[in-house]
């Protein structure tokens, strides 16, 4: 009865916490135990952030390195940074974009190119998605995180109906249609591959 | 009863309203802040809630409410308890009436803190109970019981969650919200509440005589459990117990310590049934020290002989490695895959348009050879801009600054402190600096809110924790009342004016104060402020990099290596003043 472990990584402000909330709520809908942990406080300010969600988890909230079944990366560079959490045979759903960290400019550090980042992700089961374009199609660039969740939902041991119900429980009522559209666009992007 | 997916701090807040809390105060500090933020946002139970100006003030307010018979809670982070330590130690002597819970959240690994101190030491020091939850559900259940425990033993009860409890989530069973309400009434009893020597000597004796009763009350709660399953055992406390449960073999005994003080007879009876005992706890070796006093002829592994790390936070992998060292596991079930090397770091950073960055830039321009003591807040991130030379604890920018100024050091001292931190413990430092003639400049970075911990109001904000309007205090008035004669207010977005004022301060002697006043860029946006973005004219840009060195996340380079402003821009316009070529202009105004 081991848990299905999901690591969501990105940059503070991109909505990793909402994404992890939706997965947690979907577990409640299905009556599955769940544990999670996330970054709050100072580290949120544009820094690298991670949310752990353990579907079926009953003990601690932290996913040990080498154990995640799925990584959802809202930024390619952050996906590479946390790659060591993924188990052999795990899957990655990654947003095909990266924000250049400010220290690259202020400290003149080398920034890996997209091809290098994709090279590091290597032979994993990788699904790349243009979340910005799909979020724009849904109506607002802010829902990229929900687009990513929609895509990731194909990999989760949770029903689509539970995920949609969880989205409804987790977002403001007036943004529900926008968010469900974003979810569907992300989910359908995986099927159309 | 309902099951919900909740953050640890939200579950703790719900437990407060289930237990019928009547009074809550605190000072924000990661990872504790969401407890009061959740209480002030909920509408299920009405009672008094305040964000106090510091932890000592918060503690004494809640203590007094307890003396009046109310169920009270005070919340803070671990280092905040140092500020409240004075009333804490003596309130164990006076005792309490209504249940009084002192929530002090520890931060192993110092995710957002200046040290990794262990709050459980304070409980031992003060001779009062301490609850140390191992999961979010247990945090909820323990806190429901904490108020009644406090009333039963007549003492404050320390509640010590850690970051991975406060900021972890789980499917949590909640109880009903209490409908019982109390009204405070103070019953005069000088022998209880006036701790003159004649009274306090008696109170100390009473506190000591209570201890066996306290140990029994703590054990009766049932949070300390033990199961004998073999001749080797693991004893764990706090979230480490959850990690142990993930990896412990079926034939190894397990003891969990959720509450302190530990009943020595009970622990000794367990320990003596084993050949080997491993103690796993984050923070200080509190359980281990007690266990080593009791273990006779038993091989004990823990922090004190290097089997368990003495610092940082644990994980299932850490715990498994400790079990291997103690011979409890033959090998760790976890690999330790190496992270990809050579990636550029992405540390937390001041927001695009943050006025602190503009002020730091101006300070560096006027005081290129300055010494920059700073303080605890978002602006500690000014470290990356080279304008934070010291940080030790709340309020210490001013006092470290005056100390350096009096030391004979000849470089100019420019200290920085936020509005909330100045009100917390900065005022006394300024009063002292002015009175003793420290040659320094103090810059109060006044963004009108306690930003770093999640935008809690403070007396500069103009509203209380409950959103009631209140008169915002005058920082200028306070600084003048402290005796400062040079007190000037600047808008950091006005770079020219700010530089002029800094130069004027540099030319004057004594303790000068500059108040850099500009609302936090996040709260400004939330309240509807829209300034319009800036953009780079690529024809005018010489790619000199001056704007990039400013370090704003809204500024990057385009494919031709010229500066480019992205959609994080909040329109503060400071980079336009910095650009030597006039290449940065308001969007649509070329």
UniProtKB/TrEMBL annotation, chain A:
Q: Which UniProt keywords apply?
A: Oxidoreductase, Pyruvate
**Which Pfam families does the record associate with it?**
POR
Reaction catalyzed = indole-3-pyruvate + 2 oxidized [2Fe-2S]-[ferredoxin] + CoA = (indol-3-yl)acetyl-CoA + 2 reduced [2Fe-2S]-[ferredoxin] + CO2 + H(+)
> InterPro entries, from UniProt?
Indolepyruvate_Fd_OxRdtase_bsu (IPR017719), IorB_Oxidoreductase (IPR052198), Pyrv/ketoisovalerate_OxRed_cat (IPR019752), Pyrv_flavodox_OxRed_cen (IPR002869)
Please tell me the species this chain comes from. Answer: Methanofollis tationis
EC top class named in words:
oxidoreductase
What this chain does, per the record? Catalyzes the ferredoxin-dependent oxidative decarboxylation of arylpyruvates.
Official protein name in the record: Indolepyruvate ferredoxin oxidoreductase subunit beta
Q: Which gene encodes it?
A: iorB
Subunit structure, as described in the record: Heterodimer of the IorA and IorB subunits.
Q: Locate the Pyruvate/ketoisovalerate oxidoreductase catalytic domain: which residues?
A: 12-187
Q: Name one GO molecular function term.
A: indolepyruvate ferredoxin oxidoreductase activity
TrEMBL record, chain B:
The UniProt entry, under Pfam families, shows:
Fer4, POR_N, TPP_enzyme_C
Q: Would the keyword 4Fe-4S be found if you checked this record's keyword annotation?
A: yes
EC number(s) on record?
1.2.7.8
- PANTHER family xrefs: 2-HYDROXYACYL-COA LYASE, INDOLEPYRUVATE OXIDOREDUCTASE SUBUNIT IORA
How is this protein organized at the quaternary level? Heterodimer of the IorA and IorB subunits.
Q: What is this protein called?
A: Indolepyruvate oxidoreductase subunit IorA
Q: Source species, please? A: Methanofollis tationis
* Cofactor, free-text remark: Binds 2 [4Fe-4S] clusters. In this family the first cluster has a non-standard and varying [4Fe-4S] binding motif CX(2)CX(2)CX(4-5)CP.
Catalyses: indole-3-pyruvate + 2 oxidized [2Fe-2S]-[ferredoxin] + CoA = (indol-3-yl)acetyl-CoA + 2 reduced [2Fe-2S]-[ferredoxin] + CO2 + H(+)
């Amino acid at each position: 009865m081991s848990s299905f472990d999901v690591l969501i990584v990105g940059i503070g402000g991109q909505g990793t916490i909402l994404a992890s909330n939706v997965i947690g709520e979907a577990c409640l809908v299905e009556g599955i135990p769940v544990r999670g942990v996330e970054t709050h406080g100072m580290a949120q300010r544009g820094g690298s952030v991670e949310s752990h969600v353990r579907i079926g988890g009953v003990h601690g909230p932290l996913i040990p390195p080498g154990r995640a079944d799925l990584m959802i990366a809202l930024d390619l560079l952050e996906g590479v940074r946390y790659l060591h959490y993924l188990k052999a045979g795990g899957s990655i759903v990654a947003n095909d974009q990266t924000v250049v960290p400010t220290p690259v400019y202020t400290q003149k550090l080398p920034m890996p190119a997209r091809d290098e980042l994709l090279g590091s992700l290597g032979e994993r089961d990788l699904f790349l998605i243009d979340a910005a374009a799909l979020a724009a199609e849904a109506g607002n660039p802010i829902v990229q995180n929900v687009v990513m969740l929609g895509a990731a939902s194909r990999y989760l041991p949770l029903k689509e109906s539970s995920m949609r119900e969880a989205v409804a429980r987790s977002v403001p009522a007036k943004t529900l249609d926008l968010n469900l559209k974003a979810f569907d666009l992300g989910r359908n992007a995986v099927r159309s591959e | 009863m309902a099951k919900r997916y909740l953050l640890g701090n939200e579950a703790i807040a719900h437990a407060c309203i289930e237990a019928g809390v009547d009074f809550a105060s605190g000072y924000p500090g990661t990872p504790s802040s969401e407890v009061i933020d959740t209480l002030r946002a909920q509408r299920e139970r009405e009672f008094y809630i305040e964000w106090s100006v510091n932890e000592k003030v918060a503690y004494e307010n809640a203590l007094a409410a307890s003396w009046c018979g109310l169920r009270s809670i005070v919340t803070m982070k671990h280092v905040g308890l140092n500020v409240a330590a004075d009333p804490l130690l003596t309130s164990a002597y006076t005792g309490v009436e209504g249940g009084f819970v002192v929530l002090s959240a520890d931060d192993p690994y110092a995710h957002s803190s200046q040290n990794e101190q262990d709050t459980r030491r304070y409980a031992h020091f003060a001779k009062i109970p301490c609850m140390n939850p191992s999961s979010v559900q247990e945090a909820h259940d323990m806190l429901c019981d904490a108020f009644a425990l406090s009333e039963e033993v007549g003492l404050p009860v320390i509640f010590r969650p850690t970051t991975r409890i406060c900021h972890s989530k789980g499917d949590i069973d909640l109880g009903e919200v209490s409908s019982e309400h109390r009204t405070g009434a103070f019953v005069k009893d000088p022998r209880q509440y006036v701790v003159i020597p004649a009274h306090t000597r008696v109170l100390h004796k009473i506190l000591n005589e209570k201890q066996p009763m306290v140990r029994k009350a703590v054990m009766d709660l049932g949070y300390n459990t033990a199961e004998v399953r073999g001749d080797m055992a693991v004893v764990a406390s706090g979230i480490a117990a959850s990690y142990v449960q993930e990896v412990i073999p079926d034939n190894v005994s397990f003891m969990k310590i959720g509450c302190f003080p530990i009943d020595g007879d009970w622990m000794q009876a367990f320990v003596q049934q084993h050949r080997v005992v491993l103690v796993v706890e984050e923070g200080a070796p509190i359980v281990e020290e007690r266990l080593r006093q009791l273990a006779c002829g038993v091989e004990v592994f823990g922090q004190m002989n290097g089997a368990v790390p003495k610092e940082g936070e644990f994980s299932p992998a850490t715990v498994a490695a400790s079990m291997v060292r103690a011979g409890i596991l033959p090998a760790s079930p976890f690999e330790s895959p190496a992270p990809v090397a050579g990636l550029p770091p992405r540390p937390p950073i001041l927001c695009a348009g943050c006025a602190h960055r503009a002020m730091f830039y101006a300070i560096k321009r006027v005081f290129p050879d300055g010494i920059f003591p700073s303080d605890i807040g978002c602006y500690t991130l000014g470290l990356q801009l080279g304008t934070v030379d010291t940080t030790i604890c709340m309020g210490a920018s001013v006092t470290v600054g005056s100390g350096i100024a009096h030391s004979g050091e000849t470089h100019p001292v420019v200290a920085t402190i936020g509005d909330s931190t100045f009100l917390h413990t900065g005022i006394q430092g300024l009063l002292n600096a002015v009175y003793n003639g420290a040659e320094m400049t103090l810059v109060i970075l006044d963004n009108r809110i306690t930003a770093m911990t999640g935008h809690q109001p403070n007396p500069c904000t103009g509203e209380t924790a409950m959103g009631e309007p209140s008169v915002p205090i005058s920082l200028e008035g306070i600084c003048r009342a402290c005796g400062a004669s040079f007190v000037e207010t600047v808008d950091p977005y006005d770079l020219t004016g700010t530089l002029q004022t800094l130069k004027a301060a540099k030319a004057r002697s004594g303790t000068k104060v500059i108040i850099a006043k500009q609302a936090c860029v996040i709260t400004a946006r939330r309240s509807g402020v829209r300034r319009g973005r800036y953009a780079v004219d690529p024809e005018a840009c010489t790619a000199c990099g001056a704007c990039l060195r400013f370090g704003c996340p809204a500024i990057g380079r385009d494919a031709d290596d010229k500066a480019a402003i992205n959609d994080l821009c909040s329109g503060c316009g400071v980079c336009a003043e910095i650009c030597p070529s006039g290449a940065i202009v308001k969007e649509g105004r070329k």
